[in-house]
Specification:
about 350 residues; alpha+beta; five-stranded mixed β-sheet; two-stranded antiparallel sheet; about 50% helix
Length: about 350
């Protein structure tokens, strides 16, 4: 390498070291000169480069300089080749001069790596500089700069993770609150609709008094489905219970039941949703006080769907006291169109 170039390189290196020591104070952190820049002991020269012969190392170093691979990439740069060559030929002064020329470039590259937060590269370059000259004045400052920047970066990253976690927690809480409000609104809507349906059902029951019919008309299985009609209750007297024979003069006249309260059965919710209609014939006994006793299903179409609601309603029926026990039958129709 020409003497003029060597002189300029060493002069540039001296100026850089002077400026670093006297003009930079922003990165002054407590760090020991013997503390490594990396938590792991990493050799400055790769094992593959260290195993090369002296001649190969010299040729590789010269070629790397020509191609401007002064300090990178790792394992294929001029500084590593010269350092490995110096280990084999420690008395060769040209090697020491070449390393001195390369130091300023490696130092600038290390500082740039710190600025872009590439701490792995910064520590690799620090190791090259430390192996080149462990007593270089710039090393403590560079080491402190790396440690300070890395600590600051880790704190920023931790704070950012904390901030993101807090944002996610608040988002989940807000989503849960919105879902709870939606559930409460839906529950209120369902309750209001149920109350409205119950009120409409009660109005229909009050506006649809039972109709009494003197004769029972049994259902015929082969008859076509009746046209949907408003829910009605038909009085179908059945034969009276057997009574002891009385003299002809003492025969009692037939009694027609006079209804006081005949609430309509509740329409089963599932049958109402599915549009199922039908009819139920029920037989019941009215005692002398007008109360219903012994209600039972005689015939139902379809079977079992309306039975329980029909019996529950019939047992609450009340009639004018007939003065004696009377057994009667009635047919109750269920039509969803009127619900």
């Amino acid at each position: 390498m020409p003497d003029s170039r060597l002189f300029r390189s060493r002069l540039l290196f001296a100026l850089l070291l002077t400026g670093v020591v006297t003009g930079t104070s922003a990165c002054r952190n407590t760090a020991s000169e013997n503390t490594p820049a990396s938590d792991e002991a990493r050799p400055a020269v790769s094992a593959q480069v260290a195993a090369m012969s002296s001649e190969n190392l010299r040729q590789s170093a010269t070629q790397a300089v020509k191609e401007q691979r002064l300090y990178a990439p790792s394992g294929n740069n001029a500084m590593e080749y010269y350092l490995a060559l110096r280990d084999k030929l420690p008395e060769d002064t040209t090697i020491a001069g070449a390393l001195a020329d390369l130091q300023p470039y490696a130092l600038i590259a290390a500082e740039q790596a710190v600025l872009r937060q590439d701490f792995v590269e910064a520590k690799r370059l620090y190791a090259l500089l430390e192996k080149t000259d462990a007593r270089a004045p710039a090393l403590p400052r560079l080491q402190a700069s790396i440690q300070s920047a890395e600590t600051h970066y880790q704190m920023q990253r931790s704070n950012e993770e904390t901030r993101l976690a807090e944002q996610e927690r608040k988002r989940q809480e807000e989503a849960a609150r919105q879902q709870q409000m939606l559930d409460e609104q839906n529950a209120q809507i369902v309750a209001r609709r149920q109350a409205e349906a119950a009120a409409m059902q009660e109005v229909r029951v009050r506006e649809s008094p039972a109709r009494q019919e003197p004769e029972s008309r049994p259902l015929q299985a082969s008859a076509p489905a009746p046209i949907p009609q408003p829910e009605t209750v038909r009085d179908e007297p059945a034969e009276e219970l057997p009574k002891p024979a009385l003299p002809p003069a003492a025969t009692q006249a037939p009694i027609h039941l006079q209804a006081i309260s005949t609430p309509a059965p509740r329409y089963p919710a599932e049958a109402l949703r599915n549009g199922v209609s039908g009819s139920v014939q029920v037989e019941f006994t009215v005692d002398e006080n007008g109360r219903v006793r012994n209600a039972r299903i005689v015939q139902a179409n379809p079977t079992r769907i309306f039975n329980n609601d029909t019996l529950s309603a019939v047992r609450r029926w009340r009639f004018e006291p007939p003065g004696r026990t009377i057994t009667s039958r009635r047919t109750i129709h269920f039509t969803p169109e009127q619900q």
